[in-house]
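Example record

Each entry pairs one chain with its bound ligand, adenosine-5'-diphosphate.
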Amino acid sequence: MTTTAEKGTISIHTENIFPIIKKFLYSDHEIFLRELVSNAVDATQKLKKLAALGDFNGELGDLKIEVSFDKKNKTITVSDKGLGMTGDEIKKYINQIAFSGATEFVEKFKDKTDAKDIIGKFGLGFYSAFMVADKVEVISKSFKENTEAARWECDGSTEFELSAANKETRGTDVILHINADSEEFLDEFRLKGILEKYCKFLPVEIKFGTKEESVEDGVDKDNKPKYKTVTSDRIINNPAPIWTKAPLELKDEDYLRFYKELYPFSEDPLFWIHLNVDYPFNLTGVLYFPKIKNDFEIQRNKIQLYSRQVFITDEVKDVVPDFLMLLHGVLDSPDIPLNVSRSYLQSDANVKKISAHITKKVADKLVDMFIKDRAEFEKKWDDISVFVKYGIISDEKFYDKAKEFALLKNVDSKYFTLKEYEEKVKPNQTDKDKNVVYLYTTSADKQHAFIESARNRAYDVLVMDGILDSHFINHLEQKLEKTQLKRVDSETIDKLIVKDEKVASVLSKEEEETVKKVFETAINNTNMTVAVESLSPDDMPVTITMSEWMRRMKDMQKTGGGGMYGFMGAMPDSYNVAINGNHALVQKILKAENDDQKNKLAKQVYDLALLSQNLLTGADLTNFIKRSVELVG
Ligand code: ADP
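Structure tokens for the complex follow.
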């Protein structure tokens, strides 16, 4: 069979689709390389398959794909040694399939505003070459015996040229004559960058060659200086990344090495999950648990999505549940439809299944780790708690599993499951209405005095100082029956967990009134609500608290939530000041000689209470020090 030179018209419906495509693809021009190299990979894989089936009996030989560029002649070439095409096949596959694909694409998306979004992940196949080239040549020789090499050329219009070519070796060269707007791609770093982004894990070795031409001695027949080509080649991809291998073949070092390959500057991950599903959908991948401290916002967009080892995107928002986006790693699935819009993706049944499956796998892994080695799990807890809590808050199914392994940590750094903790505190921390009260601190340092008085009553105090803990606390209250969570400094110790036994007051009603007045005058601040309480004589004389309710509203406001509490915007912090009528100092104040003396003493104990909570600052602090010096002196 011979290829006779011919000119022809590609029959497509839209006259000139190129300008439309060009408009859509403006910011994503670089994907042309992904598309062409993917085609080269496909052609290579197909040949291997034919060989395996016995339909190709020749030498496979070196199957490396070569990407090279020539700055002087303004070309970029993608060469493969795959199955190649005859002239007729070029007409069929390139003229018809590639062009009709592009036409269909444009027809579908020309009125859609989200087209750009889609194209970035999907590409246009062969046709995308015309985004950067004003002329494309395909020179190909089929693996089939007794066929001639063919050369096809087209400038992106509907006209093409096909002729016989002079190619001895099997495979296809696609030569792009780069257009004036796209010369940025005739650059080693730019091209290498694109290859590393999209082709880093393609399954066939890819050689990236910089063809630099330097002047050789002498001149050619047209009297121009002669050039010689200097090539520097290196393989830019890892054709067998670990997610394509069986977990049994892999050691911890392999996973850690791969992690470093993905994120060269990151600390080692805590552990990982190797996903390997082939029914009812296809999904492979490795998800790593990074060390997440409180800056978890920065860590997003670390999961990379591949389709048969071709990089698609690192925006996995619709494929992976939000809380799992804190993980790192790769997912590879040919079943994620990439050629559809985002809103469609969210409702796609496969995507939903994949997302649910990943959640389940992650939860199972954590259950497994918890059961197998509790001590080791506890060691990791501080690093994974943000992630687990986020999952618990946002995903009901995840909560169902996580309630078995989620841990609560107390101020002694002991860890309890939800069940264990309930059993631990129930006997001593149930109030008169049968509510179990969990006490917590957001800062063991600042709330030290309150933690101490809780300890004196043998109450346990949890540490809730994480970024998500205020949400987590709300969630626990919704989930756990008859359970309340209160910050240790939200009430005086008696009121934190109200029990029936009351300490009798040594003060008469009148005396209590007097004490109240004295303190109100001394404090002289309407945001401080004074009350006299009969606490134990061993408790502090004055305790300043902010109610749990008030503080939660304030916190919510700070984080931008709680719309209905917007009215509190201008409200100052208001506190409760509890005066312990049973404390010896308070009785001393009552008995002081004159009002001035009473006032001074009341101020002093009040300031001490402020001081113990870091609330005493500025002029108040200076005055307190002066007064103290006087009193001591
Ligand atoms: P797709 O790859 O999605 O089928 P393309 O437009 O990229 O669409 O390519 C159209 C067709 O052209 C391919 O299906 C393939 O048959 C053929 N083709 C493209 N590139 C090559 C190549 N390097 N070697 C062999 N055939 C190729």
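The first helix runs from residue 18 to 24.
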